[in-house]
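Hey, I was hoping to borrow your eyes for a little while. A protein chain has come my way and I'm curious about its shape. Take your time with it, there's no hurry, and the full record follows here:
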Amino acid sequence: MDSLERFVKENREKLDRYEPSQGVWDRIDSPKSSIRAKLVYSVAAAAVLIFVIGAALFLYSSENRKERLSGIPAEVREMELFYNSMVNTLYLQARPMLTEHPEVAKELENDLARIDKICVEIKNDLKDNVSNQEVLEALIQNYTIKVHILEDMLRILKENENNTEKQNPNAL
């Protein structure tokens, strides 16, 4: 038994000396109070619904505004995030090996910078002609080229590392 329950049992007579008036009981039992409660809940639900719809419209319009200002559809931005995430993941995997091969790192940096420049030009074309499917395909192709360059470079560096380990098994 917890302390509150024990306190109530021990002090029952002191606590029960006040009774609510009949008017309080009448208001509790009256149908008006349930109607009033339903009205209050309905108004609150309507206010919440209006707020949610307003927030959704605001977010939708701000997303459209971003798209209009940038000239790039949201789908293209999502695709760009996807490919950039892949590129960053592959680059992070390759970074330890690139420190051992600075000439490869420099060549990779130059190639990726060239592809980035082409992607910027394609995005500018996309702003001019959003519905042009060829422009979108060219953008996707450039991102896949970037990913393939990193995958190939990573594969070659790993093969080179494995060959070096096979030639010098005692070098650690």
Q: What stands out?
A: The chain has a mean pLDDT of 77. Residues 72-167 form one domain. The helical segments are 3-10, 12-15, 22-29, 31-70, 74-100, 102-128, 133-167.
